[in-house]
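Let us practice reading a record.
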Amino acid sequence: MKDIPGIDEDGNPRHGPFKLFFKNGLVSCEGEFDHGKKTGTWKYFLDNGQMQSSGRFKDGRIVGRWKWFFKTGTPRGTGGFDDDGQKHGVWKRYHANGQLWDEGRFEHGKKKGTWKVYDEAGALVKTQTFK
């Protein structure tokens, strides 16, 4: 994800719909600002036009469910954030071949419960428990 300042080149807070473009003319990211703070759904793209990630912001903080993708378009991971921008809820990451890599739960930024790790063929290779 690209960090986009909430202030424009003239020193004014950004407000309303926003798009940033790569040199090749494709959209790099798009979303909305509310008085200098990211808000609502934001989408980030790779320079080949493929979506890199998508999710929400509230008052300038990352919140809710997010999705990340490989350059090929296959899922890279999913996870959520609480209202303070901390990882929260079920998180999953995937190998480039689409097989699940790992899965587990965060509670306000800290790993909790059972986490499982899988190899590229989908076989469970490790289980770890966090308190």
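A brief commentary: Residues 74-131 form a domain with the Histone H3 K4-specific methyltransferase SET7/9 N-terminal domain fold (CATH 2.20.110.10).
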